[in-house]
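Worked example

This section walks through a single chain of length 372. The input is the sequence exactly as stored; nothing has been trimmed or padded.
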Amino acid sequence: MQVFADLHIHSLFSMASSRTMLPGPICTACREKGLQVTGSGDALHPEWRRMWLEFNSQDYEILVVPTTEVEDTNRVHHLILAETFDTFVELYERFLPHSRDIARNGRHHIRLGGEAVARIVHECGGFIGPAHAFTPWTSLFAAFDRVGDCYGAERPDLLELGLSADSSYGAPVSDLAGIPFLTNSDAHSPDPAKLGREFNGLEINRSTVRTVLESISRQKIFMNAGFFPEEGKYSSTACIRCYTRYSASEAAGLGWKCPLDGGRIKKGVADRASELADGPPGERPPYLHLLPLAEIIRTTYCISSPGTKKCRDIYQRFISAFGNEIAVLTRVPVPEIAEVDPAVASAIDSFRNERVELFPGGGGKYGSFRLY
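Given that input, the structure is written out below as tokens.
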């Protein structure tokens, strides 16, 4: 059985999260997106655990994998997955002496290094790996050059690429050989432009959390899907104030300080991945580049935001007609899409045939695109 899974999201208890990031809206969004599996997000938070345990996700036919994200003392973010919420009760007790915000915030700061965090997770039976590993803030490769420099003897079970990277960025890094790559949304909102904007295709033999974890550990990932890397906020090396883009050599020559406004120049993911590459690309599952349907609608009609009523109304017409967004983007014939909206159908036809012009993001500003 093949399923689509977004394994990194957050709750309303995380900083900068929507107040609608609740179990019901999350599962509704998963169904509209075409996901069968979601991470719970923030599973160390006691109240959030209680909310999931009292909620019946099977009413939505969604499988929930207990997950959370934590930050270690080196400001590296880690994604943690476990088979049951009871594991996170144990992790809560183990991390409690090392965290001041574990009972309050959704994404917790743990005053331990990556190796110590990973050891505790492994002792409790969980999975762990770097979140958004190539991002120039709070990530593995922002702080270290090698996996072992962060995790020591505790080899990570997975690596999340992040919105500004695809598999081709990690495949030539020999240090990552054998570590499964995941692509997740890191969503703080159930909005269709956020949740499920990146996801994984997994082979499982039955719908249980254990088989989802086994599919990751056994690398039964048949596809990663998500942004073109250029769409990410940190794709290119750029100033974090004015977003002016520079080559890595130009930025180094400027001392990583923008001459236009004095802002800090932040190294982009593409340049960082190029630094780390040290061999021929290893074999990885195919990566499907997608543009969120809500963003395609917004661009087609020059709408200010995918959250506007017009954009939502058009989006819902597609969901009503075809069941879910992934089907619209990948499987439904263009003539059938045109029966709902000819302009969007033309845009999707352009997208499927790679008639896309990308304008890379950088410095914290998302990239953009144009469809021909």
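What to look for: The chain has 15 helices and 16 strands.
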